[in-house]
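Reopening this ticket.

The earlier resolution said the output was attached, but the attachment link was broken on my side. Pasting everything inline this time so it's all in one place.
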Amino acid sequence: MPNFRWDCSVDGCYKRTCLPDWSVLNDALSPCKMGDIDGLVERRGQFLVVEWKPPGRSVERAQERALEALNSLDQCTVLIVHGLSDPMDPKTVRYPFGKDKPTDLKLFQDGVRSWFEKASDRL
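Inline output:
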């Protein structure tokens, strides 16, 4: 069962119903704009942040800077993944400042599992 509990056929369009239109804050944040994080998990004060992009799409420079800043914090690990999301099919993974490395679903899962085990041992 997917972690995402929204059923568009029952609950309506997720994008229209649940995603805020952050443009109402454009004047307050100018020249910046509000962004989002695709995946986030906390384990014993450690954070794993995952940004997922479809093939051929790149992380915008402002978002890249934000992810780099998060990744520089001792308690944060950031992964940028390219691949299809339905079904889940990661093709590359990288840290900010790094280069894309080929991956597949098993390698991605193993990497996340390794992060979780290390985070679990921190206390």
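Reporter confirms the inline version is readable. The CA atoms of residues 71 and 94 lie 12 Å apart. The mean pLDDT is 89.
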